[in-house]
Each structure stands twice: as C-alpha cells, then as structure tokens.
Amino acid sequence: MAELLYLDTARLGQMSPTAAKMYADFGRLAVEVPTGPCTENFLFHGTDAAPEIAAEYPELGRWPGINGLKQLLRTTFASNASADNRVLLANRTTKLMEFGVQSVLDRCERVLLT
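^ thats the sequence. predicted structure below, dont judge the formating
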C-alpha cells in the first residue's frame, strides 16, 4: 500500500520567493485576463496549452497543469507510488479533514474521542 501523505498549505509557513512571484503573476492574470477557454486550458493543461500566458506572465511558465502537478506531487512525496496511485487535491482544509477522518473511521469499529 502506498504511504499516505497529508499536506495543508495553511500551515506550511511563509512562501518561498519563487512561489510569491508566481502568486503575484497569477493575481495579475486573474485581474487582467477575463476567464475563458484560454485561461481554463492553462489551468488544466499548463503552459503547453496556452504559451501566450507564459509569455505574458513569465513566472507562470513553470505551471504544468493539474495533472502535471499531481505527477510532481506523486514523484516528490511518494517515491514508491506507482502511476496508478491517485493524488487528491482539495481547496478547503475542512473538507479534506472530513474526508481523512471518514477514511479512518470507515475502518474502525469503535472510536474514542478525548
């Protein structure tokens, strides 16, 4: 069985300078470009699908898309994981915690809360 890993960005601390630059470029993109097919293609498939975004917002040139992000997370944090192991992403800590707790509780007959 693959090793389980939980990452909560709300508790990772300060952003790295590179992440801060990418965040700033993403903020500019959100303000300057109306959301449409080009933006969606970029978010889902990365710079290969929308090279014009990477040209205008150079720090976003590293974005591999959602599947690329999942692959990077899989290889970085679970080196023993196979390609068929799923990587789940959540944008809300509460929902992720509910999912994690439910996954644990599903295997238990009794639970002691203190």
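The first helix runs from residue 17 to 32.
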